[in-house]
Design goal:
- It contains eleven helices and 14 strands.
- It is α/β, with parallel strands linked by helices.
- The strands form three sheets. It has a six-stranded mixed sheet with strand order 6-7-8-3-9-10, sandwiched between helices. Strands 2-1-4-5 form a four-stranded antiparallel sheet, with helices on one face.
- The longest helix has 14 residues.
Length: about 290
C-alpha cells in the first residue's frame, strides 16, 4: 500500500511538553483516526504535518519526498479543519468563496455552494453570528471544496449534532473511495472513529502508543474478568491495562481469541476503542 504521509523520528519540544520521536505511516486511500486525551499531542502532530510549527528533530515525507513549507502544490492538496479556529467575524460565506478562489488553484465554487446548502448555511450571514457548530460546518465546507488529496481534521465533529456528524462521516467515506485521497481525523468521539476509520493511532503524553488497523485492533483486544490468581497466569506481554474491583480483576489483553481458547471457563469480552484507551490511560499499575 502506498504511503501518503510518513513521519520519521519527529520531535517537537516545548518547555513542558515533548512530541517524542514519532514514527508513523499514513497509508494512501484510508481514514486514520487520531486519539488521545487532551494534551497528548494530537494537535501538535497535525500542526507539524502542516508546517505551522517547526520540528525540533526528524522529517516528514509526502510521497517519499520531504515536505517543504514553500510547496504551493502541497498546500493546494491539503484541506484543514482545526478546532478553535474560525474565519474573521466580518466575513460571510459569499466573501469567503471569493477569497478562496484566489488562494486555491482548484477551488470549486459549485461544490462549496452545494455544501452551504447541505449544511443550511446562509451565505450572507456574518461568521461572528455563527454558532460553534455552524462555524465548524463552514470550515468543513471550505476544506472539501478545493479538490484536496489529504484532509487533516482536528476535532471536526465537535459541537455538531448527531445527524450532521453522520453526514460528515459519510462525506469522509466517499472522499477516500478513489483510493487516492486520505484523511487524518482526530476526535474524542471514539464511536465516530469506529464507524469510519481504517486505522487508529493512539498518542499518550507525547508518545506513540500504537498505530494499528482498526478491525484487527477490535478483533484482538478484549477484557478478561478474572480473579487475582487467574490474572497471574496471563502472559504479561499481552496485558495492556488492568482494573481492580471488589469482584476481582478486569484485564485488557491484546490476544483475546487465544486466551478464550486456552481458558474456556474464563469470561473474555470483546471491547471498544474507548475502553482500550481508558485502560491505557486510567488503568491500575501493573
Amino acid at each position: 500500500m502506498e504511503t501518503a504521509i510518513r513521519l520519521e523520528n519527529v520531535v517537537k519540544k516545548y518547555p513542558k511538553f515533548t512530541l517524542d520521536h514519532i514514527n508513523l505511516e499514513l497509508p494512501k486511500g484510508c481514514i486514520m483516526g487520531l486519539v488521545g486525551e487532551n494534551g497528548a499531542g494530537k494537535t501538535t502532530l497535525i500542526k507539524c504535518i502542516l508546517g505551522l510549527i517547526s520540528l525540533s528533530d526528524g522529517r516528514i515525507y509526502r510521497d517519499e519526498k520531504v515536505i517543504s513549507k514553500k510547496e504551493i502544490e502541497w498546500k493546494n492538496d491539503v484541506g484543514v479543519v482545526m478546532s478553535g479556529s474560525s474565519f474573521p467575524g466580518n466575513l460571510n460565506a459569499k466573501q469567503i468563496n471569493k477569497i478562496m478562489e484566489n488562494i486555491y488553484s482548484r477551488w470549486d465554487k459549485n461544490i462549496f455552494y452545494d455544501y452551504l446548502k447541505q449544511f443550511h448555511i446562509d451565505e450572507n450571514k456574518f461568521t461572528k453570528d455563527y454558532s460553534t457548530g455552524m462555524a465548524m460546518k463552514l470550515q468543513i465546507a471550505v476544506a472539501f471544496s478545493h479538490n484536496a488529496k489529504l484532509l487533516l481534521l482536528d476535532e471536526a465533529t465537535s459541537g455538531l449534532d448527531p445527524v450532521v456528524r453522520d453526514e460528515i462521516l459519510e462525506i469522509l467515506q466517499n472522499f477516500i473511495q478513489d483510493e487516492e485521497c486520505t484523511v487524518l481525523f482526530s476526535s474524542h468521539i471514539t464511536s465516530d472513529l469506529e464507524k469510519v476509520a481504517d486505522y487508529i493511532t493512539f498518542l499518550h503524553k507525547g508518545k506513540l502508543i500504537f498505530s494499528e488497523n482498526k478491525d484487527e485492533l477490535l478483533y484482538n483486544y478484549g477484557v478478561v474478568r478474572c480473579s487475582k490468581e487467574d490474572y497471574k497466569r496471563i502472559d504479561p506481554e499481552h496485558v495492556v491495562g488492568l482494573r481492580k474491583n471488589q469482584f476481582g480483576y478486569e484485564v485488557m489483553v491484546d490476544n483475546r481469541i487465544d486466551i478464550s481458547r486456552q481458558n474456556r471457563d474464563w469470561v473474555v469480552d470483546s471491547t471498544t476503542l474507548e475502553e482500550i484507551i481508558l485502560f491505557q490511560i486510567k488503568g491500575d499499575v501493573l
